[in-house]
Design goal:
The protein is an alpha+beta fold. The chain is built from 11 helices and 7 strands. The N terminus is likely disordered. It holds the Pfam family PaaX.
């Protein structure tokens, strides 16, 4: 993953790395996967597959789960070790065996990400903005780190000491990030509305990398719209499910979820959401059978009721 010299950024980027290389084709069963991609794929497996079954598993079970994704035992062990260093996973020894569980910080970050990934509809936008004014004493490096961490919550730099999100419900996540950086008492948060909207489209195009995000969505659509033959086995369904979510979250977690008026025409994020929902639900039953078989009696039944729910 990128940003390894900055612990705060590394923890966040672990959940959605914009520099992560593309996942293998959805039908691929053996691909050369380098370490950064291996780490990111294991994050996807934990968030999508292991978290609903209690959030922990034996290392041997994880090795078995990711083997059909092209990850061998050595690469998996290395990636897990690095996730422990990043504060996402923690290990518990049982004799010669190790069980890996999400940390409290890791669980909170996963919960925040999953609320976006598995939503069946785009979030409601009320036309309000949330603004954060930074004090002059914040160093350039700390401003950079703060902007990166707040970027996962939809914020962008609007000025040297000003960050903003085009959503009125962004105060709570902002406070959480500011607390992590020990800046909660030093920054001022505003809830604002606009009197004129004519310049907002240009502001959004400058503040957020909308062209890059649209390209990521289009890459996802190109890779998964041609569904090919149905999965041959439960394991195949699991592989396709993981790669589906891995590709989808790569674009989605960078998407600031701007109001329609601030987005370019024919925004591909809507098609990507519909495709992800359709394919995920089609793969769910078979992939869950595979998970139950690998994780065994110690795993909890998958709690998947909130994933891509039916829309009214």
């Amino acid at each position: 993953m990128t940003g390894e010299t900055n612990e705060g950024y590394e923890r966040r980027v672990t959940l959605s790395d914009p520099h992560d290389t593309a996942a293998p084709d959805c039908g691929s069963r053996s691909a050369e996967i380098d370490r950064p991609r291996a780490k990111s794929l294991i994050v996807t497996v934990y968030g999508d597959a292991i978290l609903p079954h209690g959030g922990s598993c034996w290392l041997g079970e994880l090795i078995e789960l990711v083997r059909p994704l092209g990850l061998n035992e050595r690469v998996t062990r290395t990636a897990v070790f690095r996730l422990v260093q990043d504060g996402i996973l923690e290990s518990e020894r049982h004799g010669r065996r190790s069980r890996y569980t999400l940390t409290r910080v890791g669980r909170r970050q996963f919960d925040s990400a999953q609320a976006k990934i598995y939503a069946s509809e785009a979030p409601f936008r009320d036309g309000r903005w949330t603004l954060i004014l930074l004090p002059d004493g914040v160093s350039a490096s700390e401003r950079d780190a703060l902007a990166r961490d707040l970027g996962w919550e939809g914020y962008a730099r609007l000025g040297p000491n000003l960050l903003g999100a085009a959503r009125g419900d962004a105060i709570a996540p902002a406070k959480a990030v500011l607390s992590e950086h020990d800046l909660a008492d030093a920054c001022t948060i505003f809830s604002a509305s606009t009197e004129t909207d004519s310049a907002l489209g240009g502001l959004a195009a400058l503040a957020w990398p909308l062209d890059e995000i649209a390209a990521d969505y289009n890459l996802f659509l190109d890779r998964f719209e041609d569904r090919g033959p149905p999965p041959r086995t439960d394991e195949d369904a699991f592989v396709r499910r993981v790669l589906l979510i891995h590709g989808y979250r790569r674009a989605l977690l960078r998407d600031p979820a701007l109001p329609d008026a601030l987005l370019p025409p024919d925004w591909p994020g809507y098609r990507a959401r519909n495709l992800a929902r359709t394919l995920y639900r089609a793969l769910l039953s078979a992939s869950e059978r595979h998970l139950t078989q690998v994780l065994g009696a110690e795993s909890k039944p998958g709690d998947l009721a909130a994933r891509f729910p039916e829309t009214t």
